[in-house]
Amino acid sequence: MARLSRAGGSQVTASYLDLGNIGAASYDLTNSTLQVSENETIGGFEFPAIFIQDGGTNMGGNLFLESSSEYDFYGGNFVCFVFFNGGVFNQWGGNINDLDGPWQGQYNLAGGTLTTGGLGLPSGGYYGEGGFNSLQTGGTNIVGGIALGGAGRGTYTLTNGTLMASSLDVGIFESPIDVYSDSGNTFIQSGGYHTNGAVSINGLNNGYYGVFLSYYQLSGGTLATPSISVNVRQFAQSEGTNDEGVISFNDDAANFNENNGSAYVFSGGELIAGTVSLTGATFVHSGGALGSPTVIILTNGVWNEETNGAQLGQLQLGAGSNSIISFSTGSSVLQFTDSSGVPWATNGLLTVKNWNGSLYGGGQQQLVFGDSQTALTTQQLAEVQFQSPAGLASGTYPARILADGEVVPDSGSSLPPNIELLSGRSNGAFSMAVQGNAGQNYELDASTDLAHWVTMSTQSNSTGTVNFSDNGASNYPQRFYRARASD
Amino acid sequence: MEIGENTTENYPQSLGIDSLTISSPTNSFNELLMNYAGLETPLVINTTNSAGSLVVESNAAFVMLSSALEVWNGDLFEEKGAFSIGGTFVESGGIPSHSLVPGFGEYRRGLV
Lengths: 487, 112
What we know:
The complex is a heterodimer. Chain A is an all-beta fold. Chain A is 1% helix and 56% strand. Mean pLDDT of chain A is 82; it is low at 1-7, 176-182 and 245-260. Chain B is mainly beta. Chain B is built from one helix and eight strands. The model of chain B is unreliable at 96-112 (pLDDT under 50). Strand 1 of chain A pairs parallel with strand 6 of chain B, so a sheet runs across the interface.
């Protein structure tokens, strides 16, 4: 007589299984096999139901995860076609190949690996009602592509673990009869590592129903992708790293494109991007670290600088008259590298707003290109204007570039000379800089009583600033200086 | 109630039935334990393909340890009988790693 092995698992075979239809129910599958040829229905009635699998195999046809139901997967083989109808699937470990039918409900990945060809969150349902949420707190999700909001409201939240996807599309679902998911189509990343072939965030501006939102919110962790495309909606980064593209791999693909009123709100973390291209879109820089090099392309785009400054790459201006660089309050130095080598559209116009610097340069707010007067071409400089800059009457003013590459408003008339002290009398000399118009001669006069003046020196101001030194200053108890433009 | 290897080895004909319901009066708890009964001789529900069923009601449990169960309650197009669980069902290769107590809210993984 054969003896029974006490190490083997159990085995259940059935055509249909209903869990929770007659009372609160639980099914615990541990290192055993459940084979249901037709349907497993978990929950969906008036009672809650939970299915726990730790090892073994659940192999069936369709698994309906209804409302008030939960599937906890710790490991083993899961071979079912899942229809999420309001239930929750928790993966704590093990490997799952393919997760199908996320209509309405939630999938949580805390451990193990999910490998699936694609995730449509939701992928179907009843005209987008309900929606689907996915929360990853650990483990690894290897997915061909993720689509949020394609058939209803969808969210994906990544707090830890690794997400490897070939693409992410955060979109808006528009059903044949109505528009659902008016908000909430959001990818939220507060941690973990997300590598993605291409990120696309697409809102919807429907003239009849209005504007519908899509978001990518990065507040921690790392996003590594060669391309981010935003249409209508917003990419917000408050922390974490956005390692956008390996520049040496493909410069052309390492672009960040925003269109149609979209915004990249960068308030923290690190952004490493090859190119930031703003087409009718806004980049709000209120914090964080911008990695270099970064090429900025403004085509009717807006750069809002709200920090004490940024070191950026070249600035390229596209066609259109609505490109803007706007400063906030406080000190700020926005430094671009020499941009004379990149093309600017001849019909482009860049307006600098809320500028509160010095007409002589070196003020609390500075817009700087490279480190010389040749960092912008004459054509490029002609396409820059300042709108109501501080120190001048309201209106628009052309720009001029100083010897150190700073671009300031050109008032249209000669600047009165401005004397700036460079050093005191510690060594007997008194040094000062006279700021004024480049190409203008300036005369420095000295007086002991403000009544009798003697000319000390006349110099040509070739760069906008010329230095004078009075080596005999220590011979006088006091001495006054004045600078005058001269022929 | 327990079905063990003695039953599967010596009374296999008793393991083919049309329907089985495990229930309990209020404030009590009943459990059917298939205790290492083996996989060679399963407990078969609905041998005649009629409307037989396996029902585990509230305050009841069906516990399988290294045992086999077959419930034939439908075909491709129709669920003819029931395989309904309103209590606790444990399918294991050994002693489960969780506590086995009645009631949905109390049934979670844990140490015993």
